[in-house]
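Handout, section B. The chain below has 276 residues.
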Amino acid sequence: MTQPVFIDTHAHLDASEFEPDRAAVHLRARAAGVGMCVIPAVEAGNFDTVRLLAHAQQDAYALGIHPLYTPQATEAHLAQLDAALHTHRNDPRLVAVGEIGLDGFVPELNTPEALTKQQLFYKAQLKLAQRHQLPVILHVRRSADWLLKGLRDTPVVGGIAHAFNGSMQQAQAFIALGFKLGFGGALTYDRALQLRRLATELPLSAIVLETDSPDIPPHWLYTTAEQRAAGQPQGRNEPAELPRIAQMLADLRGISLDALAAATSANAREALPRLQ
């Protein structure tokens, strides 16, 4: 019996947390059946890093400026993004503009001035995605309605709402605009009732899998505040965890792991058509 093959649609494999054992992380992912990872940029300074890493590991990448990096971002960085998207337009491993979006959670990003700058960079990057005919990978954190408004004003060719945790109505609005919704380690927590309901009730055709490595650890890697205070590090998420996360989603939906792997991989290729 062949092993199911998964696509991790969101993994920050260039992060410093992977510095000690990046090659081993890659090998563990492949051994676990994760055949492809999408590595999104977060700022202009790591555009080359994610591109080179994706080529070295036979993965895929996206280029964009993350909302958490907008305070230090400039117009010159948008020009740099435009130039990189043009230069690498024929690179089959460049699959999206991302990670872009809006963050409604971090207090210092939600002052009037900071929020205005977030919005400016979001709209500008949607226009670049339009111009370069690429899907987008969206950061959605207490920002779904704002993001949807931007997409209605500046339509793009679809993409992925990463780490989606909104309402059913918001989910359906993203789906209507051609988006898939990313699910990962957050659904492994018993208390994630709304997220589990979404993951169970949404059409399977709308779901893609992700880890957001090294972040959003599944429950078996999570350490409590007390444990961290006692010196135990937070568990580091990695793509090799994806099949175990996927098994929980398959169980919630009452389908086989093989069926989930096949469907979510097809969905990822539909959302990001350049994925090999």
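Note. The mean pLDDT is 96. Compare this with the example in section A.
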